Amino acid sequence: MKILAIESSCDETAAAVTEERQVLSSIVSTQIAEHRIYGGVVPEIASRRHTEAISAVCSDALAAAGITYSDIDAVAVTFAPGLIGALLVGVNFAKGLSLALNKPLIPVHHLRSHIAANYIHNPELKPPFLCLLVSGGNTVLAEVTDYTKFKILGGTRDDAAGECFDKTARAMGLAYPGGVTLDKIATKADPKKYPLPFPKVSSGEFDFSFSGLKTAVVNLVNHSAQKGEEIDVPVVCATVRQRVCDMLIDKTLKAAEKYGYKTLAVAGGVSANSELRTRLADECRPKGISLYFPELKYCGDNAAMVGVQAFYEFKDGNIGDSSLNAAATIPID
Ligand code: KG4
Q: Are 114 and 268 in contact (CB under 8 A)?
């Protein structure tokens, strides 16, 4: 079954052709350079750029797979969660295609597709497993009980992990998207000099909180500027990265132990973080936990993961019609 998948939930316009877990083509047109001058994504600009790019991106994905519109068996699209205007571009384009081609329309939840990014290069990975989902807008710890069944164990009480990286990076004047830059700079320093707080959540065993850490960094930057002192940017980056990883790793491994999981997958943009990858691998090995990450090119937003998840949604009968609408927020389960 060949699926043409479309993704437009934030600042990447993407299309892919997939067949079950196999990626026949994957095209991503990113808007990062355009949003960089504003220090973050401007929703109105994102919607306009999706509108301009979507048709060409879909044609490119078909051409790269060596097929035409008449060869596809279904159209899949990210319908939630994300920026509403951006999502609407993909949803309406997909609805039009499905109608014109008379092929099924498969709505895909963005976070489910991030998890599915793990299936692409890990043929042996199948539910049940535990998943830590860490992106720019979401931080969720969930049991993946089946390909389309999820049980949330915890989530962030305030900022997402990626948001904490992006906003602390921005406070230090680093280029958007800050998480990537912060990760690179952090490798040059030792996290000792600044007494930044260790994020804590007193109730909610598997919940996360990152806003205290973010505020501490913003205050540190502002107070230093007022005193005319320079902060040691690499050291702050290393400290933020360490604190965020501490919390993510600690809660995830406790959940794995409590619920008896020996298979763990990490998903979302922050799964590209180098410290998270290394430390989790080091901690999982002695515990006998099989650890999975998506390939780096599938950690961020892309349509290949949408197509792979769509295959399982289709098998489960989750088909959309012309009444499909986009939604800014919908839980994964
Ligand atoms: O999954 P994603 O591409 O978009 C959402 O669906 O939210 O995630 C983007 C987030 C951004 O916050 C970005 O800074 C972060 O992932 N990110 C990283 C790294 N690469 C991307 N954060 C930390 N370390 C990285 N290497």
A: yes
Ligand 1, residue 184: give the atom nearest the CA: 26
pLDDT tens per residue, range 104-124: 999 999 999 999 999 999 999
Q: At 191, is the pLDDT very low, low, confident or very high (cuts 50, 70, 90)?
A: confident
Which residues 6+ apart lie within 8 Å of 328 measured at CB?
80, 81, 82, 83, 84, 87
- Can the peptide bond before residue 199 be classed as cis, meaning omega within 30 degrees of 0? no
pLDDT digits (tens, 9 = 90+) for 251-274: 999 999 999 999 999 999 999 999
Mutate which of 183, 270, 329 for ligand 1 pocket (most atoms within 8 A of beta carbon): 270
The 10s digit of each residue's pLDDT in 117-144 is 999 999 999 999 999 999 998 999 999 9
From the list 60, 62, 90, 67, the residue with the least C-alpha distance to 78 is 90
Kindly list the protein residues whose Cβ atom lies closer than 6 A to any atom of ligand 1.
10, 114, 135-137, 162, 165-166, 177-180, 183, 268-270, 272-273, 300-301
Tokens of 185: 């700079």
Assign 311 to helix, strand or coil: helix
In whole angstroms, what is the distance from residue 16 CA to residue 27 CA?
6
- pLDDT for the residue numbered 54: 98
In a mutational test of the pocket of ligand 1, which residue from 165, 170, 214 has the highest number of ligand atoms less than 8 Å from its CB?
A: 165
How far, in Å, is the centroid of ligand 1 from the Cα of 267? Answer: 10
